[in-house]
């Protein structure tokens, strides 16, 4: 690795800022920063940036497009790196996702879960999953509604090779992160409800918060934040 590479210096500065903000938000919420996993969202960026981030201590990476991600994962998958699928997933790509990603955060239907289960059985793997919830019921977003999640969760809980780990949401765009605090709070409320209704599953993780709102998400209980632009800079328009 070349030292003093401009991209690496910028990345180091960005990461230091994000880590400091995570620690500050955790402290405000009386939580420990080590209870919060930073997933660096590397979509649209080359694998070279992923490697630089790894050298700066990042071990979790998020991608939303299977094809793009597979090339990066094939190129870079040391033992301690976890790749997270965070985008809407079509069932016909489920086999590849089971074979390459470490987490699927975007399980948004029983049909998709069944397909993941079938491939997990075939490949003799267990797949950690989160259920994606469209808290604000936005037309433009995938995800289960708050109301349908418990029923679908009960069905998915019966699938032997999927390991339920919690919930994920993408909050609406907002000019002020305070405006989406109720969205994060609602996901936390759903987690409480699922802990009561389906105590045999783990509901430990709340994956919520992105560049514009991760501090608020941590105050509301996020255990995973998915941060792209604040780490890697603006994405080229795709
Ligand atoms: C792109 C993306 C992110 C990261 O968004 P930033 O605003 O760049 O931090 C997080 N989660 C999902 C599901 C995404 O698609």
Explained architecture:
This protein is of the alpha/beta class. It has helices spanning 6-28, 47-55, 66-75, 94-100, 110-122, 149-157, 181-197, 214-219, 229-232; strands at residues 37-41, 60-63, 82-85, 103-107, 127-132, 162-168, 205-207, 224-227. The longest helix has 23 residues, at 6-28. The model has no long low-confidence stretch (mean pLDDT 96). The chain has a single domain, classed as TIM Barrel. It binds pyridoxal-5'-phosphate (PLP). Residues 41, 43, 64, 86-87, 170, 210-211, 226-229 line the site of pyridoxal-5'-phosphate.
Secondary-structure blueprint:
Elements: H1 6-28, E1 37-41, H2 47-55, E2 60-63, H3 66-75, E3 82-85, H4 94-100, E4 103-107, H5 110-122, E5 127-132, H6 149-157, E6 162-168, H7 181-197, E7 205-207, H8 214-219, E8 224-227, H9 229-232
Parallel strand pairs: 1-2, 1-8, 2-3, 3-4, 4-5, 5-6, 6-7
Bound molecules: pyridoxal-5'-phosphate.
Pfam family, one: Ala_racemase_N
Keywords: Pyridoxal phosphate
Protein name: Pyridoxal phosphate homeostasis protein
Brief sketch in words of this structure:
By secondary structure, the chain is of the alpha/beta class.
Q: Any descriptors?
A:
238 residues; alpha/beta; TIM Barrel; 8 strands; binds pyridoxal-5'-phosphate; pyridoxal phosphate binding; Ala_racemase_N; PLP-binding_barrel; PyrdxlP_homeostasis; Pyridoxal phosphate homeostasis protein
């Amino acid at each position: 690795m070349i030292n003093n590479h401009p991209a690496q210096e910028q990345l180091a500065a960005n990461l230091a800022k994000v880590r400091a903000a995570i620690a500050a938000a955790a402290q405000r919420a009386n939580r420990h920063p080590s209870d919060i996993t930073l997933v660096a969202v590397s979509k649209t960026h080359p694998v070279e940036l992923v490697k630089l981030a790894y050298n700066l201590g990042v071990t979790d990476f998020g991608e939303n497009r299977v094809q793009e991600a597979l090339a990066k994962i094939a190129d870079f998958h040391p033992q301690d790196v976890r790749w997270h699928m965070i985008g809407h997933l079509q069932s016909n790509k489920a086999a590849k996702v089971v074979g390459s990603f470490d987490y699927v955060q975007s399980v948004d239907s029983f049909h998709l879960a069944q397909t993941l289960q079938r491939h997990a059985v075939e490949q003799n793997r267990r797949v950690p999953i989160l259920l994606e919830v469209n808290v604000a019921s936005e037309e433009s977003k995938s995800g289960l509604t708050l109301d349908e999640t418990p029923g679908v969760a009960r069905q998915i809980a019966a699938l032997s090779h999927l390991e339920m780990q919690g919930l994920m949401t993408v909050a609406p765009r907002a000019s002020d992160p305070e405006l989406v605090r109720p969205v994060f709070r609602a996901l936390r409320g759903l987690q409480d409800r699922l802990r009561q209704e389906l105590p045999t599953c783990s509901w430990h993780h709340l994956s919520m918060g992105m560049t514009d709102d991760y501090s608020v998400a941590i105050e509301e209980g996020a255990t995973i934040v998915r941060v792209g632009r604040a780490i890697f800079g603006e994405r080229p328009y795709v």
